[in-house]
């Protein structure tokens, strides 16, 4: 009985999944709309089993799991001879997300880690950097006298202890790493220590001799800081984010090569701790990749008033670490003409030019896969593509190693998507619904398309787009915090109310973006979401205002036919 | 218009209507020029787009020279300290001459372009742009002055070559004369621009001779000072450079804190006891240990601490009016005058720490205080305060008791005095007057008197100080 119920759910769930992934086109399965409708809320979980929901309520999770494993053994496609149902190479955030979901789905799962559990995010990325940014945010508050004064506060002489700050970052990483390890152990995921090498289909060598077999293999080996040639990293004065997060010293003057997320966040940390910063950006404008309008405002708030200057349109062709009493020297050449432009002499240089996939030594040659600039080619279902353009069965690649979207939570989402597929339900992840955030003070966040991207798409596909904006200046909570600087921007289709992109710059922008990203993921239209209620006074009203200020021609698609009294 | 703007503050969303009171419109006002100029050629001014805006940067010219303009059309996008705004024209006509190119900066109210009423007047306006821009700034030779206005002139004269916006930033630290590069930190460069200081004339004091912010500030201060000195009339005799007489200045945070504390002290009933102490022996000791880095402040703090150790009541404090605390440690706070304020760095456990460490600690505290980096516990944990104005030649004064402490001692200068000694002779001794203000709720006259007696005996026989 249980099995048949599961089967029926799975079978009609796949068309729904496709509809969800394609929701950016005009056709739309109304089934999805009800997900965030009032009805669902009102009826509660008891209704879930009968509905077409793919979500599983907590009470039925265990039965569901049993059902799936029964199903897996029933269909006979997985011979008992494998050690594991699923083997994940790399225990970063992507691998962890996949492992947890795999266990939930009843798969016997192992995870291979050649370094430390947690990968870049936990040990050398998102996590320790948030600790440093938490410190820099407070330092910044204490240092802006006029801001404090406006609040009636008096703080004199804020200072910091470098080692204390560094310890905070390190302790946080350790804590999160332990949490991650424990969560996997508690669920019965086998953690195999050693470098994973693919020997062939279903076969992976862990360390020097241990060979394990698995029905499906996920590659989740992540990335390492990318250092362009000509740059000599000594780990002391010329550093990457790996070193910078240890905060071994706070230079008086640091050049940051690259003004993307990583560079921006570090500029926030360093300037708060008293350093002066010089950005070196190869493109013609700072903060490439952000919506231009947001980038411009961010520059006005995050760069211009701070002790930062910048060189745009230049490459750092050669960087020599400080030695023998000489400073770090950076030779700049014009990005287009390649002519030498200038030489900088600074105390330290941070290389934040992006990240390179970590795919060497994986044994990809054994399955005839050729990397492209180091990235493992995959299709939209994360299935690995070999040198002949054919899919490699049972091998998937998620996260930074495939280069689709180099974000921790994107890796995790891709991992979950893969687990869905190997457990018999087709799933394609909509990358346009994945939010991104930059944790400066204030924060920047975004989901979906930028305005130029949306305009290009609109021109090509022949639809109209509109832009709505609201300012944090009109938000009560932001003003109470005396942080009225900020902007939220919505790019949408006025004809049908589809949200194409949302960009936020302002207080807690990173937390605010999820209302928009969830709306995109679930296909909620503006005409519907504008009726959702936000607590007052909260920052979330910035988005409330944003949705309400949009002018959509389409009518509310699913009116609440049965009002629920309270 | 909105899409041209590319600004975050376009009033497209309703919420914005109530926020910034900046009309996106323009301040192109026609003004009659000098007698030789006809009214038909109008100047377009840099508008004031916000109350705090003093100068604006030209982001882009929407129109180019020779274009026909009609009333209400956007002409130029200006970046203020807050946002980008586009500036519209109030008049029909032709954009005759652009005087500040894209990327250029002009102060509010200065002309950035000329508007001609008819095509025929374009040439005339152009000629005027060349002449009037150079004659508008009073010193006639434009080429080698480095003030803000000539900058506008320079930009105008190379109006045809369209410099990329970044050039303005890059050029300030490009190799200067003879290929000799100027190495200045980012903040130093920013400050130099703000304070109109020529980086080429500054000697850097940072690592490897780099120019840092401090150098620019000093150079700017020196410039102000020399200006004041050179200036004629009353300005030269003003009490100190940089102070504008007749202005109302709001308190700084520090001044606010001092003010609050002083008013609060009025609720404490205080009284004062004075004492004259002979300092010959102390002066002799100071001479001996000065070379080891010991300061007079440290010696006085040490002597006071040793005396306090014997009179714990003087080191006590009363906060609520119902009870008082015998403080467990003797922390001597010493008042230090700072630029625009006063702070009391604390020498903790001054009775226990040896005089050399105490002197080092003091130096460290003063340096930190000047750099405004004192931690709260380094200035608000004092149990007894010393205030010394002796270095100014003050022989006696009276101090206000800081709230939360029991007593403060005002120390005057040590001066040679003629004294009658007990054996009936007249002699000369160095004497110093001290005056203690104390909280009479907990410290009584006899307490202070015996404390001062102990202090005098320690200072007059200071051998214990260096132990």
From TrEMBL, chain A:
Q: List locations, semicolon-separated.
A: Plastid, Chloroplast stroma
**Which Enzyme Commission numbers does its entry carry?**
1.8.1.4
Q: What is this protein called?
A: dihydrolipoyl dehydrogenase
Entries under PANTHER family matching the protein: DIHYDROLIPOYL DEHYDROGENASE, MITOCHONDRIAL, DISULFIDE OXIDOREDUCTASE
One term of GO molecular function: dihydrolipoyl dehydrogenase (NADH) activity
* CC terms in the record's Gene Ontology section: chloroplast stroma; mitochondrion; oxoglutarate dehydrogenase complex
What does the Swiss-Prot or TrEMBL cofactor note state? Binds 1 FAD per subunit.
Partners and quaternary state?
Homodimer. Part of the plastidial pyruvate dehydrogenase complex (PDC) containing multiple copies of three enzymatic components: pyruvate dehydrogenase (E1), dihydrolipoamide acetyltransferase (E2) and lipoamide dehydrogenase (E3).
Q: Which Pfam families did the record assign?
A: Pyr_redox_2, Pyr_redox_dim
Q: Where does FAD bind?
A: 130, 196, 221-223, 400, 406-409
Q: Does the keyword Chloroplast apply?
A: yes
